[in-house]
Amino acid sequence: KQEVTQIPAALSVPEGENLVLNCSFTDSAIYNLQWFRQDPGKGLTSLLLIQSSQREQTSGRLNASLDKSSGRSTLYIAASQPGDSATYLCAVSDSNYQLIWGAGTKLIIKP
Amino acid sequence: NAGVTQTPKFQVLKTGQSMTLQCAQDMNHEYMSWYRQDPGMGLRLIHYSVGAGITDQGEVPNGYNVSRSTTEDFPLRLLSAAPSQTSVYFCASRDGTVQYFGPGTRLTVT
Predict the structure, then answer these.
(1) Best of A44, A90, A95, A98 to disrupt the B interface by mutation (most B CBs within 10 Å)?
(2) CA-to-CA distance for B20 and B77, rounded, in angstroms?
(3) What is the DSSP code (8-state) at residue A96?
């Protein structure tokens, strides 16, 4: 059974720092991996999607990498800002597009 | 487009009561799903639908019922609420591989 783990559960860093969030999964037979952002009281917003054949995806200050063989993905946030404060979730998809989720990393950017 | 809408935003139920969480989307997506989110855990799939008239169980379907009479609406019914169903419920619709989420319903069962 696929399991997705995100470490750390919470992270607090000063504004301006570059940071990395980690996601690991136990079964490398994934269709894709997605990173989402969740703001309190709101739904989830898709940030980046990496297909299983890809190594990385970039959007603005965000860069996500995927290493299927080791069962790992990282989300790199450059020059962090207070507006980046949120919970970041990763989810892997099987061939039926069903998502298996990690519990998330709560990120706080201190001004 | 309103996207995915959910009502109510908050609800308190007593054990044994029933209720329906509403979900609607205006993007003409065939695939819709319901998740629950509990502290320290990832989202878990309750039920999903690949089109009007077609529904299927997810990882944690017990105690919940769904129907899909139209493409737009996908209500989730709690048949007899239990404290273990206290959670935040998210509805989502999917276009290809991109999922769109509603704002969630925070449900407390006492």
Answers:
(1) A44
(2) 4
(3) T
Which of A83, A64, A85 is closest to A75 using CA atoms? A64
Name the nearest CA neighbour of A63 among A41, A42, A48: A48
Closest residue in A to B58 (Cα) is A98
A42 and B104 within 8 Å at the Cβ level: the answer is yes
Angstrom distance (rounded) from CA B42 to CA B102: 17
3-state secondary structure of A83: helix
For A16, A78, B54, the CA distances from A99, given in Å and listed in that order, are 32, 27, 19
For position A97, what pLDDT does the model report?
78
What is the Rg, in whole angstroms, of the alpha carbon atoms belonging to chain B? 13
pLDDT in tens, B35-90: 999 988 889 999 999 999 999 999 999 999 999 999 999 999 999 999 999 999 99
The helix, strand and coil proportions of chain A, stated in percent and rounded to the nearest 5, come to 5, 60, 40
- What integer pLDDT is reported at residue B40 of this predicted model? 85
Rounded to 5°, angle at Cα B82 from A98 and B61: 20
Structure tokens at B64: 């919940």
Cite the DSSP H helix spans in A17-72.
none
